[in-house]
Design brief:
- The chain has about 350 residues and is α+β, with helices and mostly antiparallel strands.
- The chain folds into 2 domains: about 1-80; about 80-310, 4-Layer Sandwich (Metallo-beta-lactamase, Chain A), CATH 3.60.15.10.
- It has helices spanning about 5-15, 65-75, 130-140, 155-160, 160-170, 250-260, 275-285, 290-300, 310-320, 325-344, and strands at about 20-25, 30-40, 45-55, 60, 85, 100-105, 110-120, 125, 145-150, 170-175, 185-190, 195-200, 200-210, 215-220, 225-230, 235, 240, 265-270.
- Helix 1 runs parallel beside helix 2.
- The structure holds zinc ion.
- Zinc ion (ZN) binds near residues 155 and 240.
């Protein structure tokens, strides 16, 4: 059987994905080589894994699964499964990465669940694991053990998987300190500035982000490219509503005083996929927003199994809630307000 080195495989994959930009990475927790595929504007369009495992005896890499490799070479970026992303690391730097798996639930609420794993121990934190079965399956595939559950807030579409997940894994539940009477069996109450550790290598900072509800937390990774797990506070091109226990002024403060101040490169991992609808909202408020128009053309009908991951910088261009000083947004709001005043 023809044995290829990792470099040769990478070369083949680069060719197959041209003109996409492919980066290889060693998934050291189970000795696999994975690949990230980037588009023209350096946006992540997909990842694939399982192309290679290291021979445990000789320590030399070998092509373990010819079929996987062949499929990988033929696959198109858009056909990939759940995106696994490693932040803060590239092959060979020796830096400890944060591993993120975004799980599309395909339910009516369009929830995203997340697993965040330690590359050294395989321990994982599940964020809002409503679809506990998909989360458990994903963890099993990766060889991870879920030891903690983090609820961003108390709504049922975020906490509904807790009970089954705890039953099957014994994981402990973490949530905002004021959610104790709203979330059953909470083991740890979180305050702003607390650190959530996952295994040995992952540390996530707790942000207290009221607005969608008054006990909402976001998690921020302190990686070279930070990542924000923002539940229903911030969506792609939108924000969570305040109808079920929230407060618009608090939400405004959270955006203005906390989110807007994070590094522009921060990756945005929201609790739902509402991007397409939200972009239409942006264009309704700001019909001349060219970035939102371009993004809608590009992402309409995207497969949420490999969803586009935005950054805070991108949100600054397409998210009305970060664009309250835009002359068009102000003019449109004036129009609406004067209409309400006339009708009153
Ligand atoms: Zn909610």
């Amino acid at each position: 059987m023809l044995r290829l080195t990792s470099e040769q495989i990478l070369e083949k994959i680069r060719k197959a994905f041209s003109p996409f930009h492919v980066v290889a990475e060693l998934q050291d927790y189970h000795r696999k080589l994975g690949f990230r595929v980037y588009g023209e504007n350096d946006e992540l369009v997909g990842t694939c894994e399982g192309a290679l495992v290291e021979d445990r005896h000789s320590g030399k890499p070998e092509a373990a699964d010819q079929r996987t490799r062949a499929t990988t070479c033929e696959a198109r970026a858009k056909d990939f499964g759940p995106v696994v992303r490693r932040i803060g690391n590239s092959l060979g730097t020796g830096m400890m990465p944060v591993i993120v798996k975004q799980i599309w639930t395909a339910n009516a609420y369009r929830n995203f669940n997340y697993l965040i794993a330690c590359s050294e121990t395989g321990e994982a934190l599940a964020i809002d694991p409503l679809d506990h079965e998909k989360c458990l399956k994903a963890a099993k595939e990766e060889g991870w053990t879920i030891t903690q559950i983090l609820n961003t807030h108390e709504h049922r579409d975020h906490t509904g998987g807790n009970e089954a997940m705890v039953r099957k894994t014994g994981a402990t539940i973490l949530a905002h300190k004021n959610a104790r009477d709203k979330i059953a069996d909470m083991a740890r109450g979180l305050s702003a500035g607390d650190v959530v550790k996952v295994g040995k290598t992952v540390e996530l900072e707790v942000l207290d982000t009221p607005g969608h509800t008054m006990c909402h937390v976001c998690l921020l990774s302190h990686t070279d490219q930070p990542a924000l797990f923002c539940g229903d506070t911030l969506f792609n091109a939108g924000a969570g509503n305040c109808h079920n226990g929230g407060h618009p002024e608090e939400l405004y403060k959270t955006f203005d005083q906390q989110l807007a101040k994070l590094p522009p490169s921060t990756l945005i991992y929201p609790g739902h996929d509402y991007m397409e609808n939200n972009l239409r909202f942006t264009l309704n408020r700001e019909p001349d927003n060219k970035s939102a128009r371009k993004m809608l053309d590009k992402l309409a009908g995207q497969d949420p199994n490999s969803a586009y991951v935005s950054t805070l910088e991108v949100e600054g261009e397409i998210n009305t809630f970060f664009r309250l000083t835009s002359p068009t947004v102000i003019a449109k709001l004036r129009e609406v307000l004067s209409r309400i005043a006339r009708e009153a």
